[in-house]
Design brief:
Blueprint: H1 3-10, H2 12-16, H3 26-35, H4 40-50, H5 55-70, E1 86-91, H6 98-111, E2 116-121, H7 128-138, E3 143-144, H8 152-165, E4 170-175, H9 183-199, E5 206-212, H10 218-229, E6 234-238, H11 248-256, E7 260-264, E8 272-274, H12 277-284
Parallel strand pairs: 1-4, 1-5, 2-3, 2-4, 5-6, 6-7
Antiparallel strand pairs: 7-8
Amino acid sequence: MGWLDKLKQGMKKTAARLTGVSVSDVDSLEESLILADVGVKTAHELVDSVKKEKPEQVKEKLSQILVQKLSPVAKPLEIRKTDIPFIILMTGVNGAGKTTTIGKLAHQYKNRGFSVAMIAADTFRAGASEQLGRWAERTKSPIFTGAENEDPAALVYKSLESIKKDPVDIVFIDTAGRLQNKSGLMQELAKIRRIIQKHYENAPQETILVLDGTSGQNILSQVKLFQEVCPLTGLIMTKLDGSAKGGVLVALADNFQLPVYALGVGEGIDDLNAFTAPDYVNALLENVK
């Protein structure tokens, strides 16, 4: 199955919100967009932009507007080999899929000829290091782990000391899932970032927030609060295959303009791919008549 087919399959629950919606029924279209979690403000603006179109042109016009909104944030994750490791700090709330996303990205970049290391800085969740360890084994990548409940920033410091002696191209740092309202854990994330910068002034080159696609509009507050504590460079959305709220990507683009690097539509190692606006819009509007 090709990526577009996987994306359509994954977006089925979200697209079902728009099943059978007639573009000539403006109120119904707006309501359905809201149900797909596009957001009230964004849905109203979209419908307002197309309501004067001829019925047979509404879907095409809606598609064009959505692609225009999303194209500026649809950017690939660009990793380059330099004289220092390319450090990716992976953040997100509990259960968003950070560890699995690291594994999938490591697999992709190993296949492109990059050397990879992983740091298991989630020292609080039972089994977190083991989960990342399985991905390290699967991708034949070195992994640095600490004792249970060890200070994550201290672990990152020691791990980067070791990596300096045996350099790699990419370092993925897995952090503990944290609720955005837990200020202590959020400040710990900022501390990890400062520790990284003690080793490499211009790192981390990427701080990525992994978002659970089933969370809907709650995602917006997550992005805002993480951004305040630890400046984000981009987003990855997972679990679109289990969500009827995939329209929230449109609200994300409207509100934050942060790059969306990739979408996850399943547990398979190849079920994470670059976000492209036309493919996503095609999947979202597939059932609109």
